[in-house]
Specification:
The chain is of the alpha/beta class. It has one domain. Helices cover about 30% and strands about 30% of the residues. It has 3 helices and 6 strands; from the N terminus they run βββαββααβ. A 6-stranded mixed β-sheet has the order 2-1-3-6-5-4. A hairpin with a 4-residue loop joins β1 and β2. The chain is globular and about 35 Å long. The protein starts with a strand and ends with a strand.
């Protein structure tokens, strides 16, 4: 699952929601941290230039797959794996994602 962020357009979208083996934020285009945060919108917030915290409930909503019980179980396993690696916040409400710049 990739979160595609377009800072210049102020928008973001989810790509490949069925690929739960990878998870990152792809930034397409130019923009600073404030632009990136605005483009992420309700999906999450940035943590410097290299990471973002993505809200799990918003990610579920934006995935378009939240009603699929099989997918949701697999998503839960992804979240559990992330938690085991320390990639969730203290409340377990957000996933830490690496930010990748796409030329």
């Amino acid at each position: 699952m990739r979160i595609l962020v377009f800072p210049e357009e102020g928008r973001s979208t989810i790509a490949e929601p069925d690929d739960l083996k990878k998870f990152h934020v792809e930034v397409h285009g130019e923009g600073g941290e404030d632009d990136l945060s605005r483009a992420l919108g309700q999906l999450g917030r940035t943590e410097g230039a290299e990471h973002a915290w993505i809200f799990i409930e918003e990610l579920l909503r934006a995935s378009g797959r939240a009603d699929d019980e099989t997918w949701r179980a697999a998503f839960g396993q992804m979240v559990d794996y992330a938690a085991s690696k320390g990639w969730t916040d203290a409340d377990g409400e957000s996933l830490r994602a690496h930010i990748v710049a796409v030329p």
